[in-house]
Amino acid sequence: MKHPKPARWDPFHELSRLQESLTRMLDEGFFRRPGESALSAWAPDVDIYETADELVLQADMPGLSERDIDIRVENNTLTIRGERKFEATVPEDNYLRIERRYGSFTRSFSLPHTVDTERIKAEYRNGVLTIRLPKREEARPKQIRVQVTAG
Fold first, then answer.
1. For the chain, which domains are there?
2. Distance CA 111, CA 56 (A)
């Protein structure tokens, strides 16, 4: 009785199968229906910069209203919570692709002790949340003038 020859390993065939699997996985992810995994976790992108007087945090939150955003400071930690709700104004079956993320989010940031937490201000405009974190007076840089004396 003859034994069949073992199949030769073809790395290009394996690579092609991997590519097909990835493509199928991505397509299933992009062609989600509301109520499936469209409500996966998301978090707004944040930029933080510093000036002489304050730290400034800006977060992209398109589609939210100020009622959807909760900002708290506790134990030198700034926490931003919110929720972007999926509001279907179009019938579910008409969606071909849903790429935007929906659902609740939480972002937390440790604040340096130089921040005056009593004077923090937040503003929400055009889908961008801006939080101004003023520095304590003693933490701000001071310029000291040098006097020249004749001598």
1. 37-139 (2.60.40.790)
2. 12
DSSP string covering the chain: -PPPPPPPP-HHHHHHHHHHHHHHHHHHHHT--TTTGGG------EEEEE-SSEEEEEEE-TT--GGGEEEEEETTEEEEEEEE----SS-GGG-S---S--EEEEEEEEPPTTB-GGG-EEEEETTEEEEEEEBPGGGS----PPPP---
Taking only the tens place, the pLDDT of each residue in 46-96 is 999 999 999 999 999 998 988 999 999 999 999 999 998 887 788 878 888
